[in-house]
Amino acid sequence: MNGPGRARGSGRTLLEVGRLQVHFPLREGLFRGRRSVVKAVNGVNLDLARGEILGLVGESGCGKTSLGLAVVGLAPVTSGRIEFKGRSLVGLSGRQALERSRSIQLIFQDPYSSLHPRKTVCQLVGAGLRIHGLAQGPRVDALVLEMLERVGFSLEHLYRYAHEFSGGQRQRIALARALVLKPELLILDEPTSALDVSVQAQILNLLKELQAEFNLTYIFISHDLGVVHYVSHRIGVMYLGHIVELGTTAEIFLRPRHPYTRILLSSLPSLDPDNPPQRQVLEGDPPTPINPPPGCPFAPRCPEVREICAKEKPELIHRAGPDGHLTACHLSSA
Amino acid sequence: MRDPSRPASDLLLQVEDLKVRFHTLRGVVHALEGVTFHLRRQETLGLAGETGCGKSVTARSILRLIEPPGYISQGRIAFEGRDILKLSQAEVRALRGSQISMIMQEPKMALNPVIRVGRQVAETLLIHQPGLGRRAARAQAVEMLAQLGIASPGRMARRYPHELSGGMAQRVMIAMMLVTRPKLLIADEPTSALDVTIQAQIMELMKDLIREIRTSVLMITHDLGIMAESCDRVAVMYAGSVVEEGPVRAVLKNPRHPYTRGLLKTVPDNANPDQPLFSIKGNVPSLLRPQTHCRFAPRCEEAFDRCREEVPPMYSLGGEHQAACFLHHRAAPARPAGGVGAAEAG
User: Is B85 inside any structural domain?
Assistant: First the structure.
């Protein structure tokens, strides 16, 4: 892909997503006769450099999770490209799919349902090593222990069950399970949403340390702008299956160009009672991704909407500001 | 928010030394260890704290919704001077919904799935004002929905809960709770399940409506930003007791309890991304033993011997600001009668 979506810096591109569409057919109504399509991801372009943390923000139903699932092969790719280290990930099977499942790992939001309740920590974390044939016998336990110690556990925790741990500890077990396979890309889907702020701080610190230590690349999916601001190098703002703005964290927070990004940022409650945000309140509910509008996806709710917006879908391209700052808004070039 | 011209003595709610226990297989959980706070008329008090600190148990106690294996072992909850804990079941039922309402976190769980939402809102009115009549109740319900920014309230009233988005369902819930114009509204994480833009909408609407019908609000939230925006005063809870209380500005800008300070520092919103986030070391203590010392002491960087031996009382720090921490042992102890004593001392 040239130009649009180009990853920051000179680092080698690890992941390329081009015109990706993830659609889910839906049959509803009496006798399930009425057909419609949920366009969860509807034409996303994205590049990711090795060692980068890309934050994906957006509200429920914007497609951020579906995008992550498509990369790990858990959501059907309707059309478009996903390339990992130059090789396509679309429609993989057999040995290649297995290899992908080692090098791209997913961390789920809810650590209470993502760990098998009847397996010990040792079995949970070691299962991947066995499946991928990376270690056998006592070597498995040694590797598992090494990784568990890295995320803050010790030998005594090895034979306990998931229910004996708190939410933050479980999320660390999930991290150990992913990292023991030496993955290159980690997709973190709301990894701290189920946790309290003080525990969240521990996990965020750990995630940043691990990223630097293992030279990992993260796609960090979250609805929490504060968390994304703290963690990410670059941020993609999603709305109704599209990335509407993409840029460095500083650019997005200091000079947001898309009206939706500005509204999203102004919705954040301020911790300083003397300095309340200049709030722009958005009217209406987010539209459903079932048969979305033809033009700009944000047009029906946009306070700055023009005639062109309802007719023509704006591309995510560089319109103004620094090179890497891309916006999908007709008005942004002004 | 509160009109500052009103006299300071009109207490609506006084919670004093409230203790709640739960009998479990593993032992007795001491969920609340002497919670004391007060709420004035037309005031919004925020109850902040992390999971398990007792915010929701406190709220449920006020409505007498603690059910076995839990029970209120001690304390007084005075609502307009009457002790709620001494009322009969019938008297409590008369209070619920008409005088004291509660908004839950998950609106869809709280609405009846097989009844149209308009009827659910109207029903609340009819229960407490049986003489009103169906037609009038329905009209008031629709008007309430309109006040909550619902574009076509008549059509909305004919829908079922499953047809609504989360934001719409929460509006219906708020309408249902405010249509009887209660004196006290308990909002338990009212926007936690919603997206930020919807949260902003709902918070603005709630603020306007609360001002209009002159309701006092007990706002329970773990989001300190929401607290900063919507509350007059806040009480910070940790492991079953209030550790710091005061005007929102004083507590957020000049926190005096080490836990409050830590909590504010762990919020990533304004943190420098190049430095590790502050995190409070250790874990929340087990509540299986009664409180014999400061429950935060094992995690506190400023703890000294006394913290591990005694339960710290509330110390008055000027104005209405008070903290339960021995670091302030030279300050005058705040009087247990809540804000009345504190206001006189300050």
Answer: yes
In this complex, is the C-beta atom of B228 within 8 Å of any C-beta atom belonging to chain A? Answer: yes
Q: Which residue among B181, B206, B224 closes a domain?
A: B181
Which chain B residue lies closest to A272 (C-alpha atoms)? B228
Q: Tally helices (H) and strands (E) across chain A.
A: 10, 12
CATH number of the domain that residue B81 is part of = 3.40.50.300
CA B152 from centroid of its chain's CA atoms: 31
Confidence band (pLDDT; 50, 70, 90) for B183? very high
Structural domain of B128: 106-181
Nearest-by-Cβ selection for A270 from B229, B264, B278:
B229
CA–CA distance from B309 to each of A88, B297, B312, B323 (Å)? 64, 10, 9, 18
Same domain, B85 and B149: no
Task: Provide the number of structural domains found in chain B.
Answer: 2
- The answer, for A291 touching chain B at a CB cutoff of 8 Å, is no
Do residue B244 and residue B319 come from a single domain?
A: yes
Residues A265-278 pLDDT 10s: 988 888 887 877 78
CA proximity to A189, closest of A137, A228, A241, A244: A228
In B, minimum Cα distance to A165 occurs at B283
CA torsion through residues B256, B260, B261, B262, sign: positive
The number of residues in chain A equals 334
Q: Tell me the ipTM for this assembly.
A: 0.80
What residues of chain A lie within 8 A of the CB of B51, using their CB? Answer: 196
By the CB < 8 Å criterion, does A44 face chain B? Answer: no
Q: Is residue B31 part of a domain?
A: yes
Q: Does A266 touch chain B (CB under 8 A)?
A: yes
pLDDT in tens, B114-154: 999 999 999 989 988 888 889 999 999 999 998 888 878 88
Based on the domain organization, do B218 and B324 belong to the same domain? yes
A29 at the B interface (CB within 8 A)? no
Which residues are registered as beta bridge partners of A135?
none
Task: Work out the minimum CA distance from A133 to partner chain B, whole angstroms.
Answer: 36
| Residue in chain B lying closest to A273 (CA) | B228
Same domain (yes/no): B93, B241? yes
Contact yes or no for B277 and A270 at CB 8 A? no
3-state SS assignment for residue A291: coil
Chain A residues with CB inside 8 Å of B203's CB?
A: 269
Measured between CA atoms, the residue of chain B closest to residue A208 is B276
Q: Could you tell me if B322 and B222 lie in one domain?
A: yes
Position B331 in a domain: yes
Q: Does B278 contact chain A (CB < 8 Å)?
A: yes
